[in-house]
Design goal:
By secondary structure, this protein is an alpha/beta fold. It has ten helices and 13 strands. The chain has a domain of about 220 residues: Rossmann fold (3-Layer(aba) Sandwich). The protein is globular. The structure holds nicotinamide-adenine-dinucleotide and uridine-5'-diphosphate.
Length: about 325
């Protein structure tokens, strides 16, 4: 795939101080691009971009993209990654989640239209809800409860896809939609409540590992660097998507908990707790389109990725203990 966006381009990343956003910022800077990150730090952290202080091609604007995007000057691409992403956290900020998927998507697309910039939206496997088709191809319309406890996130993302498609079809904006499957890695917030940060933190602290239900539900886990490679390939490709990006490393949550106990060498026991309502039973992307259209091939296996992630969380915990 030819690299289209890099040196000489100016790229805006909303949610650029978040887990995925900050890795994208790093990758775009490494390509030689100028990058502007906008983030209100509702779930992200200034620490994720602290290493970029003094980088002349990087700037950070602390702002809520629901209210507007206070960035002037030409833009070649806009990557909309702002949104709470963890179930307990988006349930803590339900209205903010609905608005960042709706108002903020309009704000980004209006800006993309003004600049003739390419727009790429971070969508999600949650668009498939609790899927009745497995693995999930992009052609599957999903099984989402529109009034359930996950709806503020799932429906916000589905609406965001609808706005994106409308601006493409009726306003001629160059758009792309990536449907991201469960991604993990350094810079995830240790307290965000998702399975991997929870299990790793619990294992490192010697606390019980809380597996919801009987742990037979599955997720397919993707390391951050593989996701970033897929997103940049989509950005370069000119393809509209939606395109799934993730891996076929499908694990039950009981298997994931056991693997993390082994890799941390923890003495923690696994305990089984209540299962949240509407929690999807299974999830695995059909990666045919990503492979054929983007040449996408994830490289990092779960053990390798989890070892890196465990090392990151261990250093976060020891820094907190020292403070
Ligand atoms: P994250 O919480 O680490 O990052 C989200 C960032 O967006 C944070 O820095 C947060 O402060 C910022 N943000 C939220 N609302 C904002 C607002 N109104 N204005 C400005 N900034 C705002 O989560 P993440 O895992 O890095 O997710 C990034 C994006 O990828 C999200 O859009 C998420 O829905 C999507 N996604 C992630 C995954 C995953 O597995 N990590 C899966 C599917 C989709
Ligand atoms: N989960 C769990 N224990 C936890 C946190 C999550 O068993 O402490 C389960 C959760 O119910 C779901 C799976 O792990 O079945 C993945 O959850 P996560 O929040 O990471 O991602 P999502 O549900 O958004 O795919």
């Amino acid at each position: 795939m030819t690299q289209t966006y890099g040196e000489g381009h100016r790229v805006l990343v909303t949610g650029g101080a978040g887990f995925v956003g900050s890795h994208l910022v790093d990758a775009l800077l490494a390509r030689g691009a100028e990058v502007v990150a906008v983030d209100n730090l509702i779930t992200g952290s200034a620490a994720n971009i602290a290493h970029l202080a003094g980088e002349p091609r990087f700037s950070f604007v602390e702002a809520d993209v629901i209210e507007g995007i206070p960035v002037s000057g030409k833009l070649d691409a806009i990557l909309h990654f702002a949104s709470p992403a963890s179930p307990p956290v988006y349930q803590q900020f339900p209205v903010e989640t609905l608005k960042v998927g709706s108002y903020a998507t309009f704000n980004c697309l209006d800006l993309a239209k003004e600049h003739g910039a390419r727009f790429l939206m971070a969508s999600t496997s949650e668009c498939y809800g609790d899927p009745s088709v497995h693995p999930q191809p992009e052609s599957y319309w999903g099984n989402v409860n529109p009034i359930g406890p996950r709806s503020m996130y799932d429906e916000a993302k589905r609406f965001s896809e609808a706005v994106t498609s409308t601006y493409r079809n009726f306003h001629g904006v160059d758009t792309a939609i990536v449907r991201i499957f469960n991604t993990y890695g350094p810079r995830m917030s240790i307290s965000d409540g998702r399975a991997i940060p929870n299990f790793v933190a619990q294992a490192l602290r010697g606390e019980p590992i809380t597996v919801h239900g009987d742990g037979s539900q599955t997720r397919s886990i993707c390391y951050a660097s593989d996701l970033v490679a897929g997103i940049l390939a989509l950005l370069d490709s000119g393809q509209p998507g939606p395109i799934n990006v993730g891996t076929t490393h499908e694990l039950t949550m009981a298997e994931l908990a056991k693997l993390i106990v082994t890799l941390t060498g923890s003495a923690s026991e696994v305990v089984f707790t209540d299962r949240p309502k509407d929690d999807p039973e299974m999830r695995r992307p059909d990666l045919t389109l990503a492979s054929e259209l983007l040449g996408y091939a994830p490289k990092v296996d779960p053990e390798e990725g989890l070892r890196e992630t465990i090392a990151y969380f261990a250093s976060t915990l020891s820094a907190t203990a020292e403070a």
